[in-house]
Amino acid sequence: MSGIYFHIPFCKQLCHYCAFHKSISLQSTNEMLDCFKKELELRKDYLDQKSISTIYFGGGTPSVYKPEQIQMLIDECSKYWNIENDAEITLEANPDDLSEKYLAALKNSSVNRLSVGIQSFHDEDLILMNRRHSGKEAYDTIKRAQAYGFDNISVDQIYGVPGLSMEKWMENLDLVYELDIQHISSYHLMYDPNTVFAKKLEKGQLIEVEEEESFNQFKYLIDSARQNGFTHYEISNFCKEGFISRHNSSYWKQKQYLGIGPSAHSYNYTEREWNIAHNYKYMKAVTEGGEFSEKEDLNFYDRFNDLVLTSLRTYWGLDLNLVKEQFGDDLYRHCEKKATKYIQSKHIRKENNSIILSDEGVFISNDIMSDFFFVEE
Ligand SMILES: C[S@@+](CC[C@H](N)C(=O)[O-])C[C@H]1O[C@@H](n2cnc3c(N)ncnc32)[C@H](O)[C@@H]1O
Ligand code: SF4
Fold this sequence. Notes:
Blueprint: E1 3-8, H1 29-42, E2 51-59, H2 67-80, E3 82-93, H3 100-107, E4 113-119, H4 123-129, H5 135-147, E5 153-159, H6 166-179, E6 183-188, H7 196-202, H8 211-227, E7 231-234, E8 237-239, H9 246-252, E9 257-260, E10 265-267, E11 271-275, H10 279-288, E12 293-297, H11 300-311, E13 318-319, H12 320-344, E14 348-351, E15 354-357, H13 359-363, H14 365-372
Helix pairs in contact: 1-2, 1-10, 6-8
Bound molecules: S-adenosylmethionine and iron/sulfur cluster.
Iron/sulfur cluster binds near residues 11 and 117.
Organism: Marinifilum caeruleilacunae
Pfam family, one: Radical_SAM
Keywords: 4Fe-4S, Chaperone, Cytoplasm, Heme, Iron, Iron-sulfur, Metal-binding, S-adenosyl-L-methionine
């Protein structure tokens, strides 16, 4: 099971919370497509398998490209790999790009999963975030996509946002449930450095929500999602039966993947590689045969820490038998020892020798994961 990720580094407008790599200068979109083609060719031997089960167009805003251009990239992949018949092919899209015309053309492409950035259905939140669409437009977009036959739709939402009261958050979720979609990604707002939100926070123009409010919103999210038929399978991800994001799960299950485009990451069991997060430098290097990525060889402890980080995020949890098999008795005992205190505090439960975060544990997952990491002295 291998996947290919394309990072589309363009957006039409900058959202005030977002630190993902992107440019609002759209002049080089065509040139960038040529570079993607070139990078695919250069890295055709990166994966040790010739079969691809997922392709993910993320960003930035992949829907700045026409469906025909997205299909061209998929066809380009099939020159080097066998794309499995039931491959999951996801396009991240902004609601304002999904017009009737766009959806009709996209339905004729191989894209079979949409991930739509809704964020909130309340206009005042969307204005604060500097989004390009209203709440109603976001709602209508999902309906329109369903009318065009898209039956594997995910929405992104953000909670813990200043001004998003519990009541408004409940309304956001109710609308999502009413839309009868297959997957939800719900993120707590992060004040990433160099974003407008982080600057506003520093100047006191935004005030972080209280931890109790954040916890209540998260708790409502997981309880209501369960009541509405969703499985909470990863910290921020919920799906109806059969609709786990196969692409993202392969990150969490430590499968290999190839990342194409500026800032994209790749992983092949022994090393991680990340492309330069700069459109011009990336394009110049790809075109002229220069270096466009950096690499890190993963040592024994890096690989252990990666396993902790990726598996504790999920409802499958950290399989202690696997730890023993791959990393030996010392790290097995290290995990057992760490788990004991969290089992007592009810942040972790143990099932079939796997340790799994409880709802309370998920809320402090970063602290728990760092505690499990093995740091060489
Ligand atoms: C890489 S973005 C691309 C999505 C698409 N461009 C859009 O905006 O609709 C994926 C998602 O990450 C989430 N996100 C980005 N920055 C975030 C932040 N600082 N805090 C919480 N969620 C964030 C948003 O929900 C966003 O939809
Ligand atoms: S949230 Fe999406 S549209 Fe907004 S800046 Fe980030 S990648 Fe671009």
